[in-house]
Amino acid sequence: MFKNEPAGPNDRLDAAGIPLADRGEADIxxxxxxxxGFASEAExxxxxxxxxxxxxxxxxxxxxxxxSEGHALDGRLxxxxxxxxxxxxxxxxxxxxxxxxxxxxxxxxxxxxHAQLGDRPWLKLxxxxxxxxxxxxxxRRLPLGAVATTAxxxxxxxxxxxxxxx
Length: 166
Prior knowledge:
Elements: H1 41-51, H2 69-117, H3 121-141, H4 144-165
């Protein structure tokens, strides 16, 4: 029977829905059947322990490669240092770009102020702010209640005249 053949009424399927090729497979404990490789030697040895250690590890492995933890840690430390240097270089570039942008914005603001207000724009702006401060103080001292009471009928009469003409 092939994988793509439809299962007959007497055929049994495994957990993935694939028909079992041999009737003996149906009697095997599904926890013992592995369809993938092993992540480590310890996992392989644990799997062999569940099978009863019928097959020794050395029969399948020709040569084992010993990797010391120190070597792996040194490599990882080197990678992290390279990454840190890369990040420092990128941060340096960003700082330079930020400095350039801020300096150009200051130059643009200064040039814009000179274009709008002529020579000594900051002095003119300071004078305008001082004049606004003095005008605000003067308006606060006015008796606005009396002024509004007096001005309200005059404004209403002016509006009535405009509406009458229209």
